[in-house]
Design goal:
Helices cover 84% and strands 0% of the residues. With 171 residues, the chain is mainly α. Helix 2 packs across helix 3 and helix 2 packs across helix 5. The N and C termini lie far apart (66 Å).
């Protein structure tokens, strides 16, 4: 039982982020998450709203992670704020926002899992030790954001191709 508690404490410490991580990891991550919501909802990009949402969501998420709540509650709070931001600030339909939030979050988790797997099994890096240092944590997180960005581009290109095919049939 004590061993499980120690693991949970380590995970909670890894979730807390520094200002460096906020600037170099959280903001780019939120830019990609907001773009993903636009892509999934098939809505035209609004650069100002994407940037505004990202700069609002990154610090909010930072402070939510610092709340003295049970493990996992901060994730639910973050998802709800992400949903509200997509719906009200970015003016994405509520049903599309819900699916966008869920899909983008799951896809980001998959990308982070792939990244951790590559770091641990391919390069032999101990993720538990590597993620203690904020700078190393930020650097080691870049590949997962890159993978996530590639997925977003693929989905966007696929949607764009499909839209062009529909337009050519209708015209």
């Amino acid at each position: 039982m004590r061993q499980n508690f120690s693991f949970i404490q380590k995970v909670i410490e890894m979730l807390k982020i520094t200002v460096i991580e906020l600037l170099l990891r959280a903001i780019p991550e939120w830019v990609l998450l907001i773009i993903m919501a636009y892509v999934i909802s098939d809505k035209k990009f609004d650069k100002c709203k994407i940037v505004f949402s990202s700069f609002i969501m990154a610090p909010i998420n930072y402070f939510v992670r610092m709340l003295p709540v049970h493990f996992g509650v901060h994730i639910i709070i973050g998802l709800l704020i992400y949903l509200l931001l997509c719906t009200f600030v970015n003016e994405i339909d509520i049903m599309k926002s819900i699916s966008s939030v869920l899909i983008s979050t799951i896809l980001l988790l998959i990308c982070e899992g792939i990244n951790i797997g590559i770091l641990q099994y391919l390069f032999g890096i101990n993720a538990e030790k590597a993620f203690i240092d904020p700078i190393m944590k930020t650097l080691y997180g870049i590949p997962s954001l890159t993978i996530f960005g590639i997925f977003i581009f693929i989905i966007y290109a696929k949607n764009n191709k499909k839209r062009k095919e529909i337009d050519s049939v209708l015209n």
